[in-house]
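Deliverable D4.2, example record:
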Amino acid sequence: MKALVGANLIDGTGAPVVNDTTLLIDGERIVAVGPQAAVELPPNTEIIDVKGYTLLPGLIDCHDHLASKGYELSDRWGLTEPVSLQHLRTAKVLEQTLAAGYTCVRDGAWLDVGFKQAVEEGLYPGPRLVLSVAIISPTGGLGDHVCGAGHHKPWGDNPLLPPGVANGVDGVRAKVREMVRVGADVIKFATTGGASSRQGHGPKDIAFGADEVKALITEARALGRKTMCHALGGPGLRMAIEQGAGSIEHGCYLSEDPDLLKMMADQNTFFVPTFEIYEFHSTVSAPHMIERAKALMRVHEESMHQALAAGVKVVPGTDAGGYVHGDNAREIELLVERGMSTMQAIQAATGWAAECVGLQDDIGTLTPGKLADLLVVDGDPVRDIGVLRDQKRFKLVMKGGDDFVNNIAAPALQPVG
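Output generated by the structure prediction step:
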């Protein structure tokens, strides 16, 4: 057994910090946690001295694109380098993300199941992965990869990354089944355009009809899969919420339809605002993308405020693939800059995020029975949320009881008797 002794504990439930605690681990799971005096250590327990540090659950990114390397068309279509080199770069991103304290990531498209298998088999380090594989959309939608000249993306030879285009009730049902067949843990679909979509398909432009969305979500549920929907505003956002999408990705214009927020709270529909990607698009993207990102910033922030007030669980997702990897905690920082308290933001990135990705029985909070996915930092993120971005202050990153980052002195042994 291992015991982390002396830390100030943030357990991921939103409860206040508990000082001078002990967390006891047996194998990959937590068996006891609480004030030092309340946790008895068995003989020969490895004692890891973390006195004065902050202990919190491993962080969770609810929307990333770990296989994406850039926003240039040649990068997005995978034309710039050999596929083998692309895969090795993705493996490095997995390692960087875990080193950043992220022990779980829900990937929003283009990561095939082989990476998850490699992590689970211990072939390569990385966070726990919840995969969507591809974005399902109709012809002309977000998942229909067409360049300005009208040419389609060459799909290559990886049958584990099928195209996401589907039309009609029968078509979307078949596409959901295909995604599950190739390893999707969650079904991602798009009912609107976005900031980064092609000109003429913007944030409030609709994709799919209500019958298609209902069929898609019904089929996903029948196959035991949650859903995540790219939807920014307008009728496409409304139909996704009315039909019961598990989470709304981006949701920038939610505040313009406040009745939807009560519906989300009642249904326990999560809101993943992805502020970080719009920070990026508002500065260095194509002109039409910059214009869209700047136009939605204020209403996007108001949407988060109204969502929290309505009881909607807001969780962080970077949507960062394509421009940065390993700085996922910038999204947590942005949640605070946009008006969350620091403790709310930590709960959002741990306990609530685990619910969003469907792993709340195993991760997200530091409670007995959960997997020992955790982060120890030198500093107090409740006072300064930026601590979670400063990897020089990371003392320990643990996943399933195993150290990935360890900058703590060698453990002592609890004596016998």
